Task: structure prediction
Amino acid sequence: MSDAAIDPRSLRAPPKRPIRLSWSDERVRAIVWQALVVGIIGFIVWWLWSNTAHNLEVRRIATGFGFLGREAGLPIAEHVIDYSPTDTYFRALLVGFLNTLKVAVIGILLATILGTLIGIARLSRNWLLAKLAAVYVEVIRDLPLLLQLLFWYAILQGLPGPRQAIHPAAGVYLSNRGLKLPWIEWQDAHSYALLTFLVGTLFTWLYRRAAVAQQMQDGQPRKVWPVALGLMLALPIAVWWAAGAPWAVDWPELRGFNFRGGLTVSPEYFALLLGLVLYTAGFIAEIVRAGILAVPQGQWEAAQALGLHAGQVLRQIVLPQALRVIVPPMTSQYLNITKNSSLAVAIGYQDIVSIANTTLNQTGQAIEGIAIIMLVYLSISLSISLFMNWYNARIALVER
Amino acid sequence: MSDITLNAATAAPEAAPRTPPASQIGLLAWVRANLFSGWLSTLVTLALAYLILRWVVGFVEWGIINAVWSVPNSQTQACRDMKGIGACWAVVTEKHRFILFGTYPYEEHWRPALCILLFIGLYIVSAMRRFWRSGLAFLWAGVLAVIGVLMWGGVLGLPYVPQERWGGLVITLILATFGLAFAFPLAILVALGRRSKLPAIKAICVLYVELIRGVPLISLLFMASVMFPLFLPEGMNIDKLLRAQIAIILFAGAYLAEVVRGGLQALPKGQYEAADALGLNYWQKTGFIILPQALRLVIPPLVNTFIGFFKDTSLVLIIGIFDLLTAGKTAIIEPAWQGFGIEVYITVGAIYFVFCFAMSKYSQGLEAELNRHRRR
Result:
């Protein structure tokens, strides 16, 4: 009786032995090895640390982040928030951080769109299109990004001056001062409309969820697009209309030697964005292509046999399966765009690296400056990783 | 049963195999199927053909027909006149020595040139599978030592050339090759450490890999150029190139370690258990059983990482080290040659492209070859 009560698995586990102080005991070896490695690394760190402390003392460099409150006195050409050279270093670094985000977020969006298009083009049945996409991917991936950035920057700088600006459409000017676009004069009505649009998107999403849940109950598909059209397009327009329908476009105009008004995309930002997007799109295209190829041919055929039309097959059968293959490597591409945006320093776009570099040159606070750069990138990388892991878990195959 | 006999009885006398109709085979059918299969496809083909043709014609006009190939003693007026209409390859003819060798003494240029050839020879030999044996490591050590002697000189009647005067393509190759030679062993150790059962070692390796992979290479290079002098005791100093080299090794080590770890994880558990059952200790097991198989699994992604890493050496431009790209950028600082960046960057890009494209084609070929046993 008592024998049957013993869990049979516990019989297989080796009996616990007391640790013997002998080299032949695996656990003793493990502890000794670890102590040795930790000791050596600890010693190196301590040695570097004490050297650093000594050097700082000799050179009379004060450590600490006190310099962040001092006046920066460094001009920044592009800033999302208000900034003037009399502001503090902290604010200058914040402006740099926002500039990094500005290029990274827009870069990620555009590179995803372009990369997906090129990836699909490589699978096209049209030979010319497929070959062209293949050549693009091969060439763009085999050239250093920094070289591409310098190349685009050289091209943009080689453009004619504002007086002879390239003028492809009304209000669009491309010159060595950058790209000029017309822009609406922002008023409250536009903010309200934008807000309505965001709320409408949220409600459309909720409606879609409800519609899918209902379909699960009774099998009847429900159309989502009329609701989406109403909530996301008609309603914001109605709100804008009700607020007086203000519509004043700020056209860029040539005054003297430069343009006034309109939206400016500086050559530095333009070259950086162009380089990052074109470069990363080459990598994303390969990821998308591999993802689509990973879906077995039988899935396409089975879906067609069920009577789904091409769009439905792609949207409901192929893409959800391809995404599982696509998302993990896509995450590292997004991280790469963010990290590669630090190359901005080479063409003079003032991102966080550029501003931190100027700061450490002005103040001599090398350690703090580099710590700030690393901290910023680590936190951006971690945020993107966390978000993409969450998304990946959401779309992952739920297995039994 | 009767169907078969019936069919056989009534079958026509054996006819010669007929060729398919002309619309099914041949160039015309291929063109129709692959270029003009529908109205959308036709539209795309025509639009693309028009754009490609226009671009090619424009490029040939700019790059060949209207190009200026050489100018007498830096008189760039001929180039300035053709600005925007024709390329000024004269900048490349004039500055090619500078772009390839930097400020290395002019009469000693054969030394870096020979080094470049040695590097290329080393790559070709390493790429051949028949040389994949332990002797290759000695070959690497030998060739790298010869390159060091050639570059520095000071012995065998070669005049001494200080490191500050090295530059151009040879620096790019040095950074990439030495970086690889040191980062690879480091990566293997870190990958093994990350899979180790010893918690302290595992924690150190995870921390190292994640920290390095979370920050851009530029921040490591800045660290090497401005913080490194603070780390060392007073009076001790190592030169800028070596500091950048260390940063690149640490950076590449973290990325390569992740690739190697992928190979270690892909290896079936039975291999580890069988090695244990044979009574091999940890290093025997790793050296004889695990690594040979795991590394073979990850050769294609390793080559892809090398390509990325070869391109990334160009980032040393930002801390002012004279590699190929920096040499190209510096060549056009001179007022006479200002504004001809595009021509120089195309040339420098072509050099990078040749190296990366060769590696990428090699990796694809190798992948196909290594996977041959899996295909049925």
